[in-house]
Amino acid sequence: IRLQFDLFMKGAAKMPSVPVVPCFCRKVVIVTGSSNGIGRGTAIFFAKAGAKVTITGRNAATLAVTKQLCLSAGAKDSEILELIGDVTDDSFLERLVSTTVEKFGRIDVLVNNAGGVSFANYGKMITDYPIAELDEMFAINVKPVLRLSQLAAPHLEKTKGAIVNVSGALHKQLSPMPCMAAAKGALDQITIQMAGSLIKKGIRVNSVNPGVVATNFAVAAGAPKEMMEQMMAAMAANPVIPLGRVECPMISERKMSFFAGKVVIFTGSSKGIGRDTAALFAKQGAK
Ligand code: NDP
Fold this sequence. Notes:
Bound molecules: NADPH dihydro-nicotinamide-adenine-dinucleotide phosphate
Radius of gyration: 21 Å
């Protein structure tokens, strides 16, 4: 943006300019929990946008599928680093950072996406929950995020990079999984605290708080498939999801031309922001 601004001041480029496809060429991204679901969709997105991506999870077979999808999205074999391990293991987090830096030389973005749920006590009142489940939820959803961010911060400081924590939205209400809700609430606090302190080093920290996304997370946590489907349907009917449906995480499974067949009226589009936004709609297939 700064380069564009300098060029603009010299009359060599027009402002504002909206990049239709974000370019992450030469950027290095770590996505935890990218062997499935939202993390896999995120890794494919970055691969498609030209980034070098470290993908990771515990399951080698599903991680290999993610790698294949990244390659199909346009990445070269040498641009995808697969690392198998458990994010609750500190030594693995150290290896995740050191091996990424060894192979790619830098880190620009850390996506803390890996997370987990437990259905063992689903629907019970919080006062009836075993404390062990609270520990388990913090161990997978909170502690690895802070530890990995601590390890990546010196590298992100050099690149003025970014951290994105994948939290959730539904923990902000009464939840049938109160320990999970407590963990995601704590994660939001960690995001706020990290954002406020790491910005002093030029690192931006943000949170994505998805509502419901149709992944395999419940089945991965041992719930029967039917329960997962019922849960998705019930969640879609939840008034906190005004859209009334759940989203699919895989970019490749969504329509790539988001506005195909749509008609857009655009006032103030003869120049400036309006012109660039109108061009963006046109590029996405709108009339
Ligand atoms: P999935 O179960 O589809 O994917 C979870 C990913 O995390 C997998 O790649 C899994 O890899 C990895 N993972 C889980 N535990 C560990 C571990 N101990 N060590 C290393 N990797 C691990 O879940 P989603 O894609 O749905 O969830 C992704 C994130 O989004 C989570 O943080 C979740 O809480 C959050 N979220 C999801 C919502 C939804 O509706 N789907 C709603 C709100 C938030 P592997 O199995 O190979 O270990």
